[in-house]
Specification:
Rossmann fold, SIR2/SIRT2 'Small Domain', three-stranded antiparallel β-sheet, binds ligand BV8, binds zinc ion
Length: 256
């Protein structure tokens, strides 16, 4: 029986200690970018211009009405130009500088804020807003900050249609094998700012509940965010508060 999580304001918890051999898996969601001015999915009420997000962010929607989908992503590309990382992103970049490849930073976000904060190894499991790829040929995804509001963008190589390099509902997230390898090796799992509504990301913590780490221990699972997530019961602790306020002091100072 998994004990219920301790749910309390983040300030009531001591910093997380990270041992010199400990491996840390951090999963971030839209909540980490909220203080940078990027709308979360919930704040948008799951809506964008009277479309349900699940209806705009699907391959079927793109096949049916690529202009509306490109408008949705072009709006977000425009917003991405002016947003800056907040103290939460900067805290994770600092953690990477301290523990190097013992940190696996996996984000559900398609914004570039972790990179802008200085994080070097970021795994975008749902893709990246500022990249596009061809829907017809195997040309690799490429940097593309352009907004496509009128004519549909064409691939220079084959003339096929371009699409945003993001993972839509119904599509397989990127690098799942890498993710599960990092999950099964971690001693500490932290989710920051995710409502725990979208799978498989929301299921990572319960995967850890049922699969011990190599040294036989079970990873410690900590949630940091404004409100209890839907998968709160899988965590050991839920530290409530804003990511920008809690992350800078989340990991014990003077890590090895
Ligand atoms: C897949 C890219 C098979 C595009 C995204 C029925 C039941 C269960 C599952 C399903 C089902 N029917 C279908 C499914 C599967 C489906 C799914 O989960 N649907 C949901 C709607 C039920 N999932 C999929 O289709 C996935 N693919 O399953 O393939 C498979 C499975 C396993 C292995 C292999 C193959 C693909 C999903 C990816 C979709 N693409 N993004 C784009 O961005 O446009 S998802 C998108 O929504 C985000 O990337 C993110 O993942 C999700 C939003 O979630 P959050 O990040 O959590 O954001 P949210 O707004 O919800 O919450 C914000 C939180 O922050 C809140 O809790 C809030 O309190 C907190 N917060 C706010 N401010 C702050 C804060 N916290 C801290 N500080 C603050 N200041
Ligand atoms: Zn092409």
């Amino acid at each position: 029986m998994v004990p219920l999580p301790r749910v309390a304001p983040g300030a009531e918890f001591p910093p997380l200690s990270v041992g010199r051999d400990d491996r840390v898996f951090v999963l971030t969601g839209a909540g980490i970018s909220a203080e940078s001015g990027v709308k979360t999915f919930r704040d948008a009420g799951g809506l964008w211009e009277e479309h349900r997000i699940e209806d705009v962010a699907t391959p079927e929607a793109f096949a049916r009405d690529p202009r509306t989908v490109w408008r949705f992503y072009s709006e977000r590309r425009k917003q991405a130009e002016s947003v800056q990382p907040n103290p939460a992103h900067l805290a994770l970049a600092r953690l990477e500088r301290r523990i190097g490849d013992r940190l696996f930073l996996c984000t559900q976000n398609v914004d570039p804020l972790h990179e802008r904060a200085g994080s070097r190894a970021v795994h975008h499991m749902h893709g990246e807003l500022l990249r596009s790829r061809c829907d017809s040929c195997d040309r690799p995804a490429f940097e593309d900050e352009r907004r496509h509001l009128e004519e549909l963008p064409r691939c220079e190589r084959c003339g096929g249609g371009l699409r945003p390099q993001v993972v839509w509902f119904g599509e397989v997230p990127l690098g799942m094998d890498r993710i599960y390898r990092a999950l099964s090796a971690c001693d500490l799992f932290v989710t920051v700012g995710s409502s725990g509504a979208v799978y498989p990301a929301a299921g990572f913590v319960s995967h850890l509940r049922h699969n011990p780490a190599p040294r036989g221990n079970f990873a410690r699972c900590v949630y940091v965010g404004l409100e209890r997530p839907e998968n709160a019961h899988c965590f050991d602790e839920c530290r409530l508060g804003k990511a920008g306020e809690l992350l800078p002091a989340l990991f014990e100072e003077g890590l090895p």
